[in-house]
Structure formats: C-alpha cells, structure tokens
Amino acid sequence: MCAYLHAPEKPDEVLAALAAPSTRIVSMTITEGGYHIDEMTGLFRLDAPAIRQDLADPHHPRSFFGYVVEGLARRRDAGGKGFTVLSCDNLRHNGDVTRKAILSFAEARDAGLARWIAEHVTFPNAMVDRITPSMDDAAKQRLNQASGLEDDLPLIAETFTQWVVEDRFATGRPRFEAVGAQLVDDVIPYENLKLRILNASHVLLAFMGLLSGYETIDEALADDALRGVVTRFLDDYVLTDIEAPAGVDAASYKKTALERFSNGAMGDQNVRVGGDGASKIQVFWTETMRRRLKKNLPIDLLAFGAASWLEALKGKGENGKTFQPFEPSLSENDWARIRSDKFSDAFELSAFDGWRDVGDQIFFDKLVFYREVLRKKGFRAALSLL
What we know:
The chain is mainly α. The protein is built from 16 helices and 5 strands. Helix 7 runs parallel beside helix 10. It starts with 10 loop residues before the first helix and ends with a helix. This is Mannitol dehydrogenase. InterPro entries: 6-PGluconate_DH-like_C_sf, 6PGD_dom2, Mannitol_DH, Mannitol_DH/Oxidoreductase, Mannitol_DH_C, Mannitol_DH_CS, Mannitol_DH_N, NAD(P)-bd_dom_sf.
C-alpha cells in the first residue's frame, strides 16, 4: 500500500483516481451483503437508500457503485479506456454479481453509459479461501499480549490461503501468479470444490458441534463420532460424485480441509461457522442433495444435519451449554415454524428450496424422523442411527 484516500473525506481525489488512465484495476471487498442484490428476485436493489441518493445526484456519489460508475463515466467522456472491477468478497460468482450490480446501477443512470461499461469493463470471477474466526475479548487480549500492541481489531488467520482468479482483465494486470494466485480460465470448478467439500462439511460439523456442547470446530472434530459423520459425508456423498478442476486431487483437498478444521490455534467458533445456516444450507448442500435424490441414493447424513441445525436454533447444547444462534435471514414466520412442536412445519423453510423439485417427500420424511429422535432421545441417540 503506497497511498490511502478516504472517500467521505476526499471524494474528489477518489473520483480523480478512478478516472485516471493509470488506474487499471479497481478491487472491492464490501461484504456479501454490500451488493444490494434482492435474495428473492435476484435483482439489484435500486430502492436501497444509498443507491437512490446516488442516482439522484450521480456526480457526488456515496456508495461504491456510485463512485465506480461516476469514475467510468469520466473515463468515457475523456475518450479513455475502461478498467477491471475485481471482487474479492467470499461470494459465489462474485464477478458476475458485480457486473449485474454495476450495469443495473449504470442503466438506471444512463443507458448509453451502461452499454459502454458492458463493452469496455471486465468483471472477473474470483474465489478466496482463508478461514478467519471472529474475535472475542479473550482472543483480542491474548493476541495483544503476544504482539505487544494495543490493537482494537486484531485478527487470527490460518496459514492456508488460496486465491483463484479468472484471467480476464480489461487493460492488463500484475503478475499475481508470482505471489501464489492461480489465474485460470474458469473459476467455477474451484468454487464447486470449495463449496461441496470445505463449506458443506464445515457447517455440518458446526451444527453437530453446537448440539454436542462444543465451542470450537477443532473440539467438534476431535470427537470421533462427529469426525466419523463428516468423513463419511465427504467420502460417500461428495468424493464419489464431484468434478475436480484439472490437476486437483479431490481426496487430497478433503484431507487438507480436515487438517484445517483441526487447527486448535484458530479457536474457530461453531456459532460463527454455523451462523446464517438458513442461507448456507441452500448454497453448500443443494448440489450434493440434488444429485443424490436424482439417483435415489441415501440422504440421511444431510437430513440429520438439517435436523441438527433446526434443533441447534434452540440455543442449547446437549450438555446444557447455551449460545446465541445467528440467523439474520429468518422471518418471524420462519421462527414460528422452527419452534412448532409439529416438526413438519419447518419443512417450509426456504433453506430447503433447492431440492424440492427432485425429492421433497423423501427429504420430508427423513427430516421429520431425525427431528423426532433428536427431540425425544437426544443428539447421541440420533447420531447412533446413522
């Protein structure tokens, strides 16, 4: 980093930097929720307050999208070239999502500008992978004591890191591969590998860990029974039916994932990993569930995982340990379905929408069965049935 400009304090300088011909890549990390994509419609939310404000006064932007589109408008008006907009957020198809957001904003502002951006700007997809646990006061104090610093926002991160980038840049790029990035023609196979192996098993382990009363992922994985379920899920449900990218061995990837989960120095919380399960289940489990239902293969491990998630939303483990579930996407009606003593009510949750069309009754029966056993006999009794 050789310079820093804070847009609210120096908006003109930021816009000048975006418009400068020397600027060729604009990278972004604005969190998954920062893209203003409506989860129900899949459309960019032009009604978001910051977006409405920028459309009303496009030359004095406040949002990321307003700044980028105004910068591109100035480049076009000066007869210049576009640049690359590179998302670094942990979001599936992040380049495609960014393109939709930018073009939707630009279209609402100026249809001609939107056409110019579509022709002169590229939006590579990229996959980032590095586990970074959330911090509590105890972890913050431990890190500051070790470093001798007084850091208000310290971070823990694992040694593993992976950055896979679609090699599609409008006006060239640095040699990212020289520092370990993988430049590829298609990021999607790498995303699928991560989602179906790493992310899918991560949340499954977290749900079971919460019900077992474990605080961290490594504690849950150290439990032979839980490790056995996760290993069976990966071996029998995923590795038998996954297309790995060329040159990548899926079995080795699985082994590395489990090694990462076992890292006790991370102290990665089951509450964090299992949080927002309503969204994660739909994203991480859908492809595996659909494939198995279409082939009439057993789905017990995932149905048990879904039932474990629902029971964990009570906020209490089998040993009496309490925790605060984090589910930002659930509505009051959703919570009513979850709390209902009629276990089938939870079947209507959107978390399970991804496979309703290929085997809803099979999943329905399994979900209700495992919820009944969990509620009446407890987690370990249900686990013994798998």
